[in-house]
Design goal:
With 173 residues, the chain is an alpha+beta fold. The chain folds into two domains: 71 residues, 2-Layer Sandwich (GMP Synthetase, Chain A, domain 3); 67 residues, Ribosome maturation factor RimP, C-terminal domain (SH3 type barrels, Roll), CATH 2.30.30. The chain is built from four helices and eight strands. The chain has a five-stranded antiparallel beta sheet. It has a three-stranded mixed beta sheet with strand order 1-2-3, covered by helices on one side.
Length: 173
């Protein structure tokens, strides 16, 4: 069992008591990153409380040899997708995928589209429409995915002072 798996096993029940779910655990060099999620909003107070609880549990269990830096964070707006569960939770969202070079030597390695399906073997993306207007779908096995993330789509920016200018014009009419 890896360090990340042991940490996940230790902190999942602890965070569930706080209505938080473990989204991911990653040991990257000297940094232990515990990514937590919630059904509702995840504020700084909840993250601080989770960080203190995880830190106490790790100190007590002594799972990690040597020194490390603990980061307890949220997955953010654009979430990294690494596991089949991550992909399953993102069905219906826009995602970007970079494939491994050997996945499709003649195809584009960077793929973007709507995630339409995720199962135990891989994912299906709707990448647009084909020549006859049918959805263009691309199937990728998990082994062919180098990295993937959701894409947050920003709405159009409001013009600075736009509303006030329009209101003034409306009152003059």
């Amino acid at each position: 069992m890896t360090v990340a798996e042991r940490v996940r096993e230790l902190v999942e029940p602890l965070l569930a008591d706080r209505d938080l779910a473990v989204y991911d655990v990653e040991m990257a060099g000297p940094v232990l990153r515990v990514v937590v999620d919630a059904d509702g909003a995840l504020d700084l107070d909840a993250l601080s409380d989770a960080s203190r609880a995880v830190s106490r549990a790790l100190d007590g269990a002594d799972l990690i040899a040597g020194t490390y830096t603990l980061e307890v964070t949220s997955p953010g707006l654009e979430r990294t997708l690494r596991t089949p569960q991550h992909f399953a939770r993102a069905i219906g969202e826009q995602i970007k995928v970079k494939t491994v070079p050997s996945a499709a030597p003649d195809a584009e390695r960077r793929v973007a589209g709507e995630l339409t399906a995720a199962d135990d073997d891989g994912i299906t993306l709707r990448t647009g429409t084909d020549d006859v207007g049918e959805p263009a779908l691309r199937r990728l096995a998990y082994a062919d995915i180098e990295r993937a993330r959701t894409v947050f789509e920003w709405g159009p920016a409001e013009r600075p002072g736009g509303r006030k200018s329009n209101e003034k014009r409306d009152h003059r009419s």
